[in-house]
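job 3f2a | input accepted
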Amino acid sequence: MADTPFQAQFPQQPLLETADWLYQSSERLTSQIHYAAQAIVHSVTSGGRVFCAGEAEAHTLARQAAALLLHGTGRERPPLAAHCLTPALAAGEATLGQQLRAWGHPGDVWLVFSMEREERDLKAATATARELDMTLVVFSGEAAQTLGPLLRDTDVWVPLPGARAAILFATAWLALDGLCHAVDATLLGDTAA
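job 3f2a | predicted structure (193 res):
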């Protein structure tokens, strides 16, 4: 059966929109990713740790962040102290905030991914991170409605272009890859040099 022009255009449209958003926001994203990498490097080289978190599909981003920070992006280096915290899925399980109170210290980094939903556990844990005087590094949509009000001037916000969760996830995945490469380049030097 032959595809109609409409059928061929439908799957292409979200890809074109995402590419356009990334192109339009690339300078701002690059700048904020640089600041996020600096915050992480400063923390881990001072004996701090990076705690990664997200709810629903954003938890996958948090797991990937912890894995890349721990193992690196392909260049050999010592592992960085990065941990992925797991959101409470059932009653009686430790919330993100409880886990953070148990392990977090001032100077640690709270690296979080928000898909701009209600995300109660993530929001409460981010407030806990503020109380603990941790540096917040927040990847969220440009509206930043969920975690934006908790950010201070010393924190880093990486604004992801787009509004739908699928687009936010895709751009966050790419931005996370850039962040981890920037961390490694800061620690090990630029390979192009």
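job 3f2a | The chain has five helices and five strands.
job 3f2a | closed
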